[in-house]
Amino acid sequence: MRIDNVVGCVDFPCVDINQQAYSIPAIDIDPDKVSILLISEAAPSDRDDGYYSQGTDSLFQKTTLEAFKDAGAKVSSFQDILDMGVYLTTAVKCGKVDYVIQTETVKQCSKLLEVEIAQFRNLKAILLMGDVAIRALNEIARRAGERRVIPAGSTYKLRGQVYTFCGIRVFPSYLQAGPSFYIEKSKRKMIAQDIAAALSQLN
Questions:
Q1: What is the pTM (predicted TM-score) of this model?
Q2: Which domain holds residue 114?
Q3: Parallel/antiparallel/unpaired status of strands 86-96 and 36-43
Q4: Residues 47-66: pLDDT tens digits?
Q5: Number of domains into which the chain is organized
Q6: N or C: which end of the chain has fewer CB within 10 A?
Q7: If you average pLDDT over residues 124-134, what whole number do you get?
Q8: In whole angstroms, what is the distance from residue 21 CA to residue 36 CA?
Q9: CATH of the domain at 145
């Protein structure tokens, strides 16, 4: 199946996004073979930097591959990550225009993310890469009448504890997609630890 055939924004109600960068994963995928869902922040401003870009210089692919290698995964290409049963997407489907994404935008786009998550029946782990992804999943839980999946607080204090969503282990972490990955070595180390913890759910 193709996710972009079942997930899509119709009216684009958000005011603080770059609609020209709107992107829904457009790859053929067997949802039953997906075990790990990685959710990062927002679509890249340049489509060629996306997770499923056909180019060879995609920034999201490059930094994510490095993050999985840091985690000890035996991968040499971005396709190797996909072949492990990892599906990657963004909480916000359009590009950012400011550093902070407004709460209402996260709420609106979490409705698309909710439909997207529902396609995968065999998930064992969800990686939330950054605050926007955490906020989006919490919003989905709120609409379902459940409490927050991830409590309020600094990510470094929340890591290492057990969180679940619909019986799926959830790992709050830091953003691995894009140039911020290279800025703070301490966060890069924590990202690797969180990815390794999620991968351990496959065994």
A1: 0.96
A2: 3-202
A3: parallel
A4: 899 999 987 789 999 999 99
A5: 1
A6: C
A7: 98
A8: 25
A9: 3.40.470.10
